[in-house]
Amino acid sequence: MATCEYTYKAGEFDVSPQMKEDFARDGFVIVRNLLDAEEVEKLRQTVGGADGGMLSNAFESKDDTGRLVKVCLWKHPGNDVTGIIARSRKVAGTFEKLLGGEVYQYHAKVNIKKPQEGGAFVWHQDYGYWYNNGLLFPDMGTVFIAMDAADKQNGCLQVMRGSHRAGRIDHKRVGGQTGADPDRVQHLEKVLEVVHAELEAGDAIFFHSNVLHRSDANKSDRMRWGYLIAYNRATNDPVYEHYNASYTPLHMVDDSEIKRCTNMTDFSGKGFTDPADNKNISGVKVRGH
User: Fold this and answer.
1) Which PANTHER family match (predicted)?
2) Which of 53, 111, 199, 273 has its CA 20 to 30 A from that of 286?
3) Using CA atoms, how far apart are residues 128 and 169, in angstroms rounded to an integer?
4) Cα-Cα-Cα-Cα dihedral of 271, 123, 133, 57, to 10°?
């Protein structure tokens, strides 16, 4: 990986001018060890604990080959471990500095690709469909936090370096997903580098809402879990209500609150998404793992 990698160290980490420059140029930065092993374990227990955890609200979405990805999607952070992570300074605070102002959670989700059967995601920009939700500007971004090792074999995230500078690309339905215009993507692939964001558990990639990204199917014998949090600038409030969140103050917390949080079961106020209410996905509700 080129110059866009950083490492989180408690008490020392901050968004440097170099990191801002990298984000502006490439559209993404990688932060190693954003969550430590204890924090990752708390996250995993909250999402898929013995009682089913948050996955009781999950649904399955098919890619264009019929492979499945399990998704759990919600609006607001709440006060459980996932919410405290989303409201922490090392996550939300990093995006505030990268995007240049106050942010709030637009939505969050967990994607799970099972061994040998987890599906792919086609090339897309998040703003390619958020644009249609009344968001006037692409002052938005997403952080993907690896909950276990993500590599080429189990379908890690791929990003097209600098593709955010191409602006918003028209999107259309591709299988059960919404994807960027394939012809446009093909031309951009000829001039831009595709980076495989290979991450260890706890590593994260922060990327701009206009960055083209995708992932392959999981053809390994390992799971691939990812926690994704999307943020919007407070000044970019949607002009009409829709299935993701309008401006809601984030109430940022210190990073130390992640380990202090003991709430792994109370998900009140999160606003889980039913796929029937989201025009950009095609899914069926499932239960358990």
Assistant:
1) PHYTANOYL-COA DIOXYGENASE DOMAIN CONTAINING 1, PHYTANOYL-COA HYDROXYLASE
2) 199
3) 6
4) -10
